[in-house]
Amino acid sequence: ARSALGIQLRRFPDDFIFGAATAAYQIEGGWNADDKGENVWDYITHNNPNYIVDQTNGDVAADSYHNYKRDVEMMRELGLDAYRFSFAWSRILPLGFNNYVSKSGIAFYDNYINEMIKYNITPMATLYHWDLPQKIQDLGGFANPLFSDWFEDYARVVFEHFGDRIKKWLTFNEPREICFEGYGSHTKAPAINITDVGTYICAKNLVIAHAKAYRAYNRDYKPVQNGECGITISVNWFGPLTNSTEDQFAAEMRRQAEWGIYAEPIFSKDGGFPKELEERVATKSLQQGYQWSRMPSFTEEERMFVRGTYDFFGVNHYTAYLVSANEYLTDQIEPSLLDDVGVGIHVPEEWPKSASSWLTQAPNSIYNSLVHLKNKYNDPIFYITENGWSTTPSDSLFDEDRVKYYRAALESVLNAIDAGVRIKGYMAWSLMDNFEWLLGYTERFGLYHVDFESPNRTRTPRKSAFVYKQIVKSRTIDPNYEPETMIMTIE
Ligand code: PNW
């Protein structure tokens, strides 16, 4: 294929899956529709409105609970192969446990999925995207070792009802954000902020829960349903600031802290937590007066149980940082994951900035991440399950910076394919604007703008939607493509 200017363009393989992603709490609304139970985001936003910068919540959000047909229409407009969405545990099991299954919850997802299937859009489903039933949180949530049994129970209900139509499963979305942000700090619900052990205890229970769900699927559903199951981990690139041995080691420690804690037990040959980090935390814990390591160990049986529980590796990738040794600056006096690692991070001035403080456009960072993971974890199959760019609510529909970001990111995917990485698909974050957690509606990630003031939550395509549509259709990235109009049609 050639661009308008006659440049030879690289092609995505014919079986490469292009899609877009969302998550239940961020789009659905219907927070108390029918018999839906309360989840940790309902609880925290209702009881502590100031937790969210604009004092909003996901009570209505993009109201996909009522607009799901419009959502599928947008997928058809974009010509998507696939759509990644998540199930709300508290909509399926309002009481948290599997003693009671909601008929209306099941019906909602049946309708949504059937509408996708009707138009040949492959559903990819996440079982858990951060909306824990509050009752399970009251019992300790991910800190309770029984959590993994309750999660398996929930997973089985979902496999049972929807596995005839869903062939691509993800157990958890982003363990780092669940554990580090939700338990080891306060930047996601339930904001437990127990910095010394919160992240580590959650990490162990989470990977065991993942493994229980994976093994349940493998044993009892896969033989008839024939699907695949993985997990999505947020993998941003952390490279060394300089080539010094110290900075290189610092970068490796930071990678272990960011995603190695969750990836190593599942994807590595030996299983268990990353060894250097495990030693570091054990040593520091003793120095700090603990009689045990703040990072729990795996029994031999647990290590083997979790190891190898994947059919593919889901990667949420957004950005990169440069890491330096001996520059850890903090006023935190409590032991914590970041203190255990004790490194500094830098973002070069020249990397373009988004509306989100943590998100810049770093060069070729998908390639760097995937090649690293391929070598470290024995060449698994990958999907990019999220990648995207934020703008502010007042930015125009002509989102040139988002267009640039997507083109560069997809070029980086092509670089990875050329390097032999087995990457099979890419999901843009997000199909539409949604509730951006602590940032409420102040940061926008959508290919479609959502008018949160309008009763129907009107969706309007941005320029990036037209550009993505052209990429999906042509399987190439034309750097000069310009949409002729901003009127969207279905082809
Ligand atoms: C993802 N980081 O979280 C989530 O899966 C989405 O729900 C969310 O809306 C989206 O990114 C945009 O924020 C991330 O620190 C959290 O690089 C943190 C990072 C990246 C993604």
Automatic annotation (TrEMBL):
<keyword id="KW-0732">Signal</keyword>
<dbReference type="Pfam" id="PF00232">
    <property type="entry name" value="Glyco_hydro_1"/>
</dbReference>
<dbReference type="InterPro" id="IPR033132">
    <property type="entry name" value="GH_1_N_CS"/>
</dbReference>
<dbReference type="InterPro" id="IPR017853">
    <property type="entry name" value="GH"/>
</dbReference>
<keyword id="KW-0378">Hydrolase</keyword>
<keyword id="KW-0326">Glycosidase</keyword>
<protein>
    <recommendedName>
        <fullName>Myrosinase 1-like</fullName>
    </recommendedName>
</protein>
<comment type="similarity">
    <text>Belongs to the glycosyl hydrolase 1 family.</text>
</comment>
<dbReference type="InterPro" id="IPR001360">
    <property type="entry name" value="Glyco_hydro_1"/>
</dbReference>
